[in-house]
Amino acid sequence: MTQSEYWQYYVHTWNLGWGN
Questions:
Q1: What is d(CA 20, CA 11) in angstroms, rounded to the nearest whole number?
Q2: Dihedral of the alpha carbons of 7, 8, 11, 12, in degrees to the nearest 10
Q3: Spatial separation of the C-alpha atoms in residues 17 and 20, rounded to whole Å
Q4: Which residues, at least 6 apart from 9, have a Cβ–Cβ distance to it below 8 Å?
Q5: 11 vs 1, 2, 3, 17, CA distance in Å?
Q6: What pTM was computed for the model?
Q7: SS3 for 2?
Q8: C-alpha angle with apex 20: 3 to 14, nearest 5 degrees?
Q9: 1-20 pLDDT, tens per residue?
Q10: CA–CA separation, 1 vs 7, rounded Å?
């Protein structure tokens, strides 16, 4: 994964923590 792809994945998992 590129840095950009990794960041998008990180934000996605973080959002799941908020129940989005």
A1: 11
A2: -150
A3: 8
A4: 1
A5: 14, 14, 12, 10
A6: 0.26
A7: coil
A8: 35
A9: 799 999 999 999 999 888 65
A10: 10
